[in-house]
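Technical note accompanying the year-one report. For the benefit of new consortium partners, we illustrate the data format agreed upon in the data management plan: each record pairs a sequence with a structure-token string. No post-processing was applied to the example shown here.
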Amino acid sequence: MDTNELMKEALAYHAEGGPGKIEIRPTKPDATQYDLSLAYSPGVAAPCLAIADDPAKAYDYTIKGNLVAVITNGSAVLGLGDIGPLAAKPVMEGKCMLFKHFSGINAFDIEIDTTDPEEFIAAVKRIAPTFGGINLEDIKAPECFEIERRLVEELDIPVMHDDQHGTAIIASAALINAMHLSGKRIDEAQIVVNGAGAAAIACARMFLALGARRDQITMCDSRGAVTTRRTDLNPVKREFATDRPVTTLREALVGADVFLGVSTAGVLDADMVRSMAGNPLVMALANPDPEISYDEAKAARPDVIVATGRTDYPNQVNNVLGFPYIFRGALDVRARKINETMKLAAAHALAELAREEVPAELAAAFGVDRLEFGPDYLIPKLTDPRLLGRVAPAVARAAVESGVAQRRPDIE
């Protein structure tokens, strides 16, 4: 299907049968006068008074404990840029749809018309009592770092900027398994990150949490290698400034074990891939067109392990592998936050699931006779039904063990 036809069908999809992709439906009986007297006046006074006496009762008598807000200002919509809050609404509705489909979480989108971090933070804080968790989405860097930091500190419900940590968690799972396949150690790997926005910084930080060494990570932006010799770096980029005597991405990649691209199409060529160390990992995550295509990278050298953000090639690094299950685990134990321990637990759970035997019936559902761990099956498939039962409990256990859970159901 060509692009024009796809766009035409997408418009019809969003318009037909009622505009948009989500709606609200009652979950209690509402057919009789008595039903309505319980749902609203006078019966609704009972849960109101119970919550006034004990705010935690909101989790017993309202949707709060299974409701996430998907919040944006539309300043950095994936592939579209700064299109503003209203134009970002279809993306946010889609995110809500994915929450419900993959993890049973109710989600509602909120678009905030400001690019001022303080105004944005204030608006989110004022509506936070409605929700059990907050998924920040498509907010430009570097403002997104401060917005998330403040909200995590100042609210007592889970807050996560998915553009940062969703990408970082899935990329980390791919890194864990690529190191497993190649027999390399993360603390010895030379890692090059191309891009210095929200996702790139979050990935680099998480690689450090996995054991990578800061002096083994080289970050590049549109001006070349991020080095200590540059005077144009903001504080976030300065965190990853290197002393290496390199100035370009091409120079940085010589002998590298890992390339992570969260940048733009076509910046990586075959010669650059060939200059890397043996059995390299190339994660070319620019969308819709990656830094180098899967086919080009494989043609450059057969030992390369390739991941992209695309559905039509192996090893799709897609945040849908993470956010539904991370929030599911956090909500199930009423976690006060999503901390690094929980994110690492999600990454390891994804990596471990990919190394397990894939049942024949599940492989058939993916349209193949056999699916097994290897260079073309590095991370689980998006529609693997085992994800909910593996990732969410791992996150919940991590929340309990790290002391941020407020309840401890059966998560074994």
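Partners are asked to follow this layout when depositing records. The mean pLDDT is 95.
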